[in-house]
Design brief:
The complex is a heterodimer of chains A (693) and B (355). Chain A is α/β, with parallel strands linked by helices. Chain A is 42% helix and 17% strand. Chain A has 26 helices and 23 strands. In chain A, α1 packs parallel to α2 and α20 runs antiparallel to α21. Chain B is 49% helix and 15% strand. In chain B, α11 crosses α13, α12 runs parallel beside α14 and α13 crosses α14. Chain B starts with 16 loop residues before the first helix and ends with a helix. The chains are: A alpha/beta (693), B alpha/beta (355). Chains A and B meet through β1, β6, α5, α9 and β19 of A and α4, β5, α5, β6 and α7 of B.
Chain lengths: 693, 355
């Protein structure tokens, strides 16, 4: 392990040592098979940068990243001030950086070069320093001057800022990017540097919704949003494999082969860019844009504006100089997907509510469900789901009845739909309140990694995370006595200060769900599923982690490994079958295990275990009495004081009541609820006391 | 760790044929994208991965380059090598073994991505960079034991560099990046938690392993282990020939790999399996075909058969399928077999029609 320790490298200032992956062998953009919508959206952004970026949502392995990386090669050129780290535009005096302005004042003519628009990659592990820029450390120590080293936001100015897996980005980095994107400017006031420079960029992000959703504010920053999925056509799939294999076999040959296509594309972009200013859009078409936006119940006016710009870009791309309905419709398709919301509906849902669906824009017709899931406000989403569930409930009843008529098979396994979620009105108010105080009051924790915000410095050395400003301050009083060897500031080991960082942490909620046969009686499972989903939606807003465990038959299973994705949870909930015996102890112990292993990964989480069951255990895990085993397990959890617990009793009143779940709850030291409490929405409120709001 | 020569020989591992096969396939074809080995404790997972190093063929590297750059591929070189090349220097070439670099679960971010030498920096005002594990793993194998217990932010870093083939470090206004292309091999015990889907998909192949049930084989495991512990050097010698044989087979297969052909019928079958098994995206198709080709090459054949596809599908699809709650394991294999035999029948019908 120690072999490589002494190999060190001299480093240059700025990004001199940064590999430029546009020069690396990248799969050519023009060789991408299928995914026309994605490639088109990317090209439109290249033609008209004011569209404001693109979010690509989709399953893994659908050429999302390949397309964005490939885009760099076909982008047009722009004029910049040569050698300016802030990528200044020489033609726009008011936007020049201080350096460039100084030069002009001194009468020096700015040297101008032409270069391709850059695609700047923002890695997930990026620190604030890296994004914003920071004090130039070498300069400070050697020359005793403060100088600013520009960060990624400077590098991305007038280019594309690309975030792969944007939904996994740390919240505080997202805040910083949103700030800059909103103002078109990056203002740094930290660590003894104060700097301000333009930062206008096209934001392109890719994400896999399975790993969690995006914050609404960030979502709205993307001009367009598209959904990609795997190609269904076998012929195209074959072509795709063949091309990929050829690329892997001999990449330079492959790239050379597609050079013609590449050149054609970049010419097309350049021509369309030139035509852009000549494209006219009629009053009528602008009206149509607004009409479509209103019909989709979008928030604010960004949709209208971007739709107009997109339609113009589409026309220009299609060598037209006027915008027709066709262009507007295509634009709507690209712009509205992540902005569509459901109509503001009355709090009580009536059965005929379904007919109230808005006259939908084209993409909504195609995939109404997806559009709905992407809607920014959760409560609206919820109403819609509630509606759907009501319908389905009806169907389910029929199915249930017909199933009862069947002869009893070896195992009666049924899949119940997800039940009604909570009253919309209540939740809405609740949400609203949480949202407002959300970002400020979340619990913070000291972070041991380099992620997180720099809050103070300390003398202890643990993380190798140098706090330069504090170190220099510590060294300052001794400068007179110390001997400086070729440096401006003599710093000794004892001066070194380290950064203490903090980051927000969330709750970790583990649902342990009873899926045994007894849950199938009545509408218990339907209600339970609805309750879980309500909780999940609440959790989502706060970016907590959730996991779900179900037990039935002879074992328990992790349905949902720790994740932030409600979409995935919903899907799994829908598919969860009910039936068989009740291995309660299995369920509880698996829940305990998953919490333990999460502790190992992230010791700072606040876990909450929610057990949803009637407590009628009848399968033993260790050969003892089933219920006694479960009780023992419960006690073990109680003894671990770091874990909060809650038990939701789903036993129906009116039947002969065993009260087993209540006993279990006492044994576990848990908060106890009855399923009816869910209806009154008290569960969420009560649990909220335990959660970090 | 001290004496690398005395790892347990690969060929001496009893049973666990599928696991061994996936590892060998990766040795033959590095583009397969690694293996995830899922299984209970004590099933020779780590032993096999460590032993794999001995089987790996030699690669040519730039002498003195700490990233082990390929001297013939400018597009994937580190900055130093590019600078040397640009200044007209001829890069010295050295042959060395492909490395298996281990990433311990408790690794700090600094250790993984590299770090700034702080003391030197403040004393001399010089920014020096200490390469981390990702630098060592360039063009080699990165082995993560208990990959499911890895810190989330380390996983993010891994995903980043696995996707780009580049590792970027940014500290105190210093930015540095270097190539980091590696084969990811991970082991995990599913009892201790699952893997994030995004990371899961980064593994080309996946195998499930269990302890051996056969009594004779179990006895053999114990016996071999005992004799290895008694005299590691002697044990290693005894298996030298076997290991040598396997290494030669790997080298042969590597050569043959480029000549393997995949007929359109086979391609159609692969695509059909991917569509019918409803996997996400296209990575599965690509990996299935690569694995099938590699299997054929390892078997000394140039043409890819249906059996190759079947085996490849079992390895490439397991972790990419969306399993419904409480669905039994093993249905996948049956379904794949079903699709293949169905396609087979179809083909026969077609050929009859042609006659």
């Amino acid at each position: 392990m120690l072999i490589n320790m002494n190999i060190c490298t001299r480093m240059n200032i700025y990004r001199g040592n940064t590999l430029d992956w546009t020069k690396r062998e990248i799969y050519p953009f023009s060789a991408i098979v299928g995914q026309e919508k994605m490639t088109r959206a990317l090209i439109l952004n290249a033609i008209s940068p004011s569209i404001g970026g693109l979010l690509i949502r989709g399953e893994k392995g659908t050429a999302k990243s390949t397309a964005v990386r490939g885009l760099a090669a076909i982008l047009p050129e722009i004029k910049t001030v040569a050698g300016c780290p802030f990528n200044c535009d020489p033609d726009k005096y008011e936007y020049l950086c201080d350096e460039c302005r100084k030069k002009i004042k001194q009468g020096i003519k700015l040297p101008v070069t032409k270069r391709k628009i850059k695609v700047v990659d923002l890695p997930l592990g990026a620190t604030e320093d890296m994004v914003l820029g920071s004090l130039d450390f070498e300069h400070a120590v050697k020359k005793g001057e403060t100088r600013f080293t520009p960060g990624l936001l400077a590098a991305a100015h007038r280019g594309i800022l690309y975030i792969d897996e944007v939904n996994l980005l740390d919240d505080h980095i997202v805040d910083v990017i949103l700030d800059a994107a909103g103002m078109g400017m990056n203002i740094v006031e930290r660590e003894g540097v104060s700097c301000m420079h333009r930062s206008e960029f096209i934001l392109i992000g890719t994400m896999n919704p399975e790993e969690g959703e995006l914050r609404p504010q960030l979502l709205d920053r993307f001009g367009m949003c598209i959904q990609v999925e795997g190609i269904k056509d076998p012929g195209k799939r074959i072509r795709l494999i063949k091309r990929k294999e050829r690329f892997d076999g001999n990449s330079s040959d492959f790239i050379a082969k597609f050079q013609g296509g590449q050149d054609e594309l970049s010419q097309k972009i350049i021509r369309a860019k030139k035509r852009l200013s000549r494209v006219k859009i009629s009053e009528k078409m602008i009206q149509l844009c607004s009409r479509l936006a209103i019909d989709a119940f979008v928030a604010g006016h960004r949709a209208d504006i971007i739709m107009r710009k997109t339609a113009i870009a589409i026309a220009s791309c299609g060598k037209r100089e006027d915008v027709t309905e066709k262009e507007v419709n295509e634009a709507a398709d690209l712009v509205l997907l992540h902005r569509v919301r459901m109509p503001p509906s009355p709090p009580q849902h009536q059965p005929d509510e379904k007919k109230e669906e808005p006259p939908s824009p084209p993409e909504e017709e195609k995939e109404p469900e997806k559009g709905e899931e992407k809607s920014e406000t959760q409560n609206q989403q919820k109403t819609e789901k509630g509606k759907k569930e009501e319908e389905r409930e009806g169907e389910e009843k029929d199915k249930e009845e017909s199933e009862k008529g069947k002869p009893a098979g070896q195992s009666l396994e049924m899949v119940f739909p997800v039940g009604e979620t909570f009253k919309t009105k209540r939740i809405q108010m609740e949400r609203d309140r949480v949202l407002r105080k959300g970002s400020g009051r979340r619990s913070r924790t000291r972070s041991s990694s380099k992620a997180g915000r720099y809050i103070m410095s300390r003398m202890q050395r643990k993380t190798n995370d140098l706090a330069l400003d504090a170190t220099i301050r510590a060294a300052a009083p001794y400068q007179k006595q110390r001997i400086r060897e070729g440096v401006a500031i003599a710093i000794e080991k004892s001066d070194i200060r380290e950064k203490v960082r903090e980051k927000r942490i969330g709750n970790f909620i583990v649902f342990v769900v009873d899926a045994s046969g007894s849950m199938g009686a009545g509408k218990r499972m339907i209600e339970t599923k609805g309750a879980i989903l309500s909780l999940l939606l609440d959790v989502y807003q706060k970016r907590d982690k959730i996991a779900m465990i179900a037990f039935k038959g002879d074992h328990a299973e992790v349905l949902l490994p720790p994740t932030g994705s409600v979409e995935l949870a919903h899907k799994l909930l829908e598919e969860l079958p009910t039936g068989g015996k009740t291995p309660l102890c299995h369920g509880i112990s698996l829940g305990y295990q998953i919490i333990q292993s999460n502790f190992r990964k992230d010791p700072d989480t606040y876990p909450l275990l929610i057990l949803i069951s009637d407590g009628r255990a009848n399968v033993s895990q260790y050969g003892g009495k089933p219920l006694a085993e479960a009780m023992e397990m419960a006690e073990e959890i109680k003894n671990n004081t770091r874990i909060n617990t809650a038990v939701v009793d789903v036993e129906k009143p009116g039947l002969i009541s065993f009260g087993l779940a209540h006993q279990l709850s006492d044994q576990m030291g848990a908060k106890y609820f009855k399923i009816e409490d869910l209806k009154a929405d008290t569960l969420v409120n009560a649990l909220r006391e335990d959660l970090l709001v | 760790m001290k004496n690398k020569n005395l790892t347990y020989p690969f060929t001496a591992i009893v049973g666990q044929e599928t696991m061994k096969k996936t590892l060998i396939l990766n040795a033959v074809n590095p583009k397969l994208g690694g293996v995830l080995i899922r299984g209970e404790k004590g099933t020779a997972k780590s032993t096999a991965v460590r032993a794999l190093a001995a089987l790996l063929p030699e690669i040519e590297v730039v002498d003195g380059c700490k990233f082990g750059c390929n001297p013939y591929k400018k597009a994937s070189m580190c900055m130093e090598c590019i600078n040397r090349l640009n200044s007209g220097e001829e890069l010295p070439v050295k042959k060395r073994k492909t490395r298996v670099v281990e990433l311990p679960v408790g690794s700090t971010e600094d250790r993984v991505v590299g770090a700034l030498d702080i003391e030197r920096a403040i004393k001399k005002g010089e920014k020096r960079f200490e390469p981390g594990i990702l630098a060592e793993a360039n063009r080699g194998i990165l082995y993560v034991d208990e990959v499911n217990l890895l810190d989330d932010h380390i996983v993010d870093v891994l995903l980043d560099s696995a996707a780009m083939g580049v590792n970027t470090i940014e500290r105190e206004g210093v930015s540095y990046s270097h190539p980091a292309e590696f084969i990811l091999i991970g082991t995990m015990n599913p009892e201790e938690g699952e893997l994030r889907p995004q990371l899961l998909d980064r593994f080309g192949l996946c195998v499930h392993i269990e302890g051996i049930a056969d009594i004779d084989e179990r006895m053999e495991v114990v016996k071999r282990r005992a004799s290895y512990e008694n005299d590691p050097a002697g044990f290693k010698d005894a298996w030298k020939e076997e290991d040598e044989k396997l290494r030669n087979a790997v080298i042969r297969a590597k050569k043959l790999l480029e000549e393997t052909v995949v007929s359109d019928d086979i391609l159609r079958l692969i695509v059909q399996i991917a569509i019918e098994m409803n996997v996400d995206g296209h990575r599965a198709d690509i990996i299935m075909m690569k694995a099938a080709r590699t299997l054929a090459a390892l078997d000394g054949r140039k043409n890819v058969t249906e059996e190759d596809v079947q085996t490849a599908a079992d390895m490439a699809l397991q972790h990419r399928m969306r399993r419904k709650p409480f669905q039994k394991q093993g249905v996948e294999e049956e379904k794949i077999a079903g699709i293949i035999s169905h396609a087979h029948k179809h083909e026969h019908m077609h050929s009859h029609e042609h006659l």
